[in-house]
Amino acid sequence: MLDAGNKAPDFILLNQDEKKVSLKDFIGQKVVLYFYPKDDTSGCTKEACGFSDDLPKFNKIDAVILGVSPDSVKSHKKFSEKYRLKFDLLADEDKKVIEKYGVWKEKSMYGRKYMGVERTTFIIDEKGKIKKIFNKVKIDGHNKEVLDALKD
Fold first, then answer.
1. Taking the CA of residue 13 as centre, how many other CA atoms within 13 Å lie in the half-sphere pointing to its CB?
2. DSSP-assigned letter for residue 152
3. Mean of the per-residue pLDDT values of the chain
4. Can you give the CATH number for the domain in which 34 is found?
5. pTM for this structure?
6. Residue 2 within any structural domain of the chain
């Protein structure tokens, strides 16, 4: 289990444009690393569009946003273009990063148990340490609470 104060596990994943993105690329900046279950579903779309709409506010405080899901690069490209998202979506099809961050969990819907991504956001500081973790994220108001936490 990761906690605030731990070094954030590094990774290299492909974004929606098939470019390699590493957490190390952002040393010196704050990173909002959010994990979400699936491209182009209602909750995930609302969350992504919220972050995208508030991107100028994040940029003002030198913070970047990275979204991660087990979807493919192709799926991310389609999702990103459809909603004109202005930040990187990273494909973790083998779920290695999702598992490193401890967000691959047993979930339940209509009494059926299955494995999936638990919606979670990590704030990572300029030195690569985890500053705050938002578990089981509720989408309404989430981008504002992340912005507030970054300003602390």
1. 27
2. -
3. 94
4. 3.40.30.10
5. 0.95
6. no
